[in-house]
Description:
This protein is α/β, with parallel strands linked by helices. The protein has one domain: Uracil-DNA Glycosylase, subunit E (3-Layer(aba) Sandwich), CATH 3.40.470. It is 47% helix and 6% strand. The protein contains eleven helices and four strands. It has helices at residues 24-44, 52-58, 76-81, 90-103, 108-112, 128-134, 138-162, 179-192, 217-229, 245-248, 254-264; strands at 67-71, 113-117, 166-169, 200-202. The chain has a four-stranded parallel β-sheet with strand order 2-1-3-4. Helix 1 (24-44) runs antiparallel to helix 7 (138-162) and helix 4 (90-103) crosses helix 11. The longest helix has 25 residues, at 138-162. The termini are close together.
Amino acid sequence: MREGGMGGGAAAGSILPRPNPSGAALFRRLATTRLATLDTLNATTPLFVVPASLRGFAAADGPLPSLILVADNPGRTEWEDGEFLSPRGASGKMARAFFDRAFGQVGAFGREILVANRSSYHTPRTGGLEALLRGCEPNLGAALRSDQRAWGEFIAQAAAAIGVPVLEIGGGTAAVSFAPYREAFQAALSAVGSLPDPVRRAPHFSHSQFFRAGADAARTARLAGFAAAHQEIAGLLLATGSVSWRVLQTAPAALCAEFLLSVTLHPWPLV
Length: 271
């Protein structure tokens, strides 16, 4: 059985194994490099969003994340705020509330969770990226592909450096929109050898999809098992087979931790 990953046991106040401190210097160099390239892209067009939280993780005295959360590309609120999964947006508000409850500490999202996107470029809808990638603006297309490749490389290398799991949300149907990211991520995974944990995937927080039953039969079965184990909580399981976020956020906070570990990061610990 996996005993706390590469870094050992769970850190105080964390439900996940602590990051490997021996990889901290490399992690911060990777984050600093990613920021530098994003700043250059943003100077060309501010539609390339530079996430403020990444600066905190890159700082010499910044936290090391316990989980890298990979989302799609910035929407309007994220673009306006300069932050992925912005706390003003519906998805960001839900994600932050969920992870804060799962970790049992206010502000855990900004310390334990590093949000990295497949793309830094803002479009009103994710599908709009496909048109840009197929479009007739070669300089923008090249920048979009370069940015996605850089995210794929950063995520794989950063996760390997400090030995933390990667959770990808959304992006399941965007075959063209995120192809450069996927190709670079897989190539980087091959280059680093392997991650201490397999990459997990889950629906996006948008429209509460994260808590829904869906096409992934194994995840849907785990979700049903979670709800069955807590059938005494009225309204937790909806008629659709999904879990109610409205009920979950008012139930004991430990249930969010259980949902994260047993439904989303399953198998956990890794055997």
